[in-house]
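G., the chain you wanted modeled:
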Amino acid sequence: MKEIVYLNGDLIPGSRAMLSPFDHGFLYGYGLFETMRAYNGTIFRLGRHLARLQQSAEILNLARNWLLSTWQKPATMSWKPTSSLKPASGLPCQPAKVISHRTRLPAKTSTVFVVARKLVPLPPETYQNGFKAALSSWRRTSGSPLSAIKSTSCLDNVLAKQEARAAGADEALLLNQWGFVAEGASSNIFLIRDKKLITPSLESGTLPGITREVVLEQLNPWG
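Predicted structure as tokens:
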């Protein structure tokens, strides 16, 4: 069964999804992405993901007007990982990823690519045995606006993850320039100390994760 993806307003086979080699997203990592999870075809916290995407687009000076209007079609789809992005399976949950980046300067248009795939959950024993984490030599810059967005230029996270795996760990812990814990290479961090839940502040350089936000809302529903 062919995988169907969303590319610039059209649903097409993944094998036909092509990108110009001169695209600035490809050449310079000038772009954004969001990874979202859907339950029974409904994306969890879609509004928050779109808001973060919009805020990030403003930081990167990507075309702003097209963003939400371009998203009207994929945002109203039922996200089922099948031969199309329409209802077809009874899977309880699955991830969807959107990638948006500038085609080239000074163009006012951007490429929007969306794909939904079946979620492959980790086996129960993984949670029972736990994960290993290792401190990375790569650093997060707390004062950089880029620390607050999910940029496609995330080579430091990739290299930190490789470094951790070479050390026999599952995840890398990144410190900021002051030596304080900021986040994981692909996760936000929570600690429990004296029966209190602790997480790095946004000022530390951590990404304002959607799941992080949900956890904090549950602890303090009144804000």
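The radius of gyration is 19 Å.

Shout if anything looks off.
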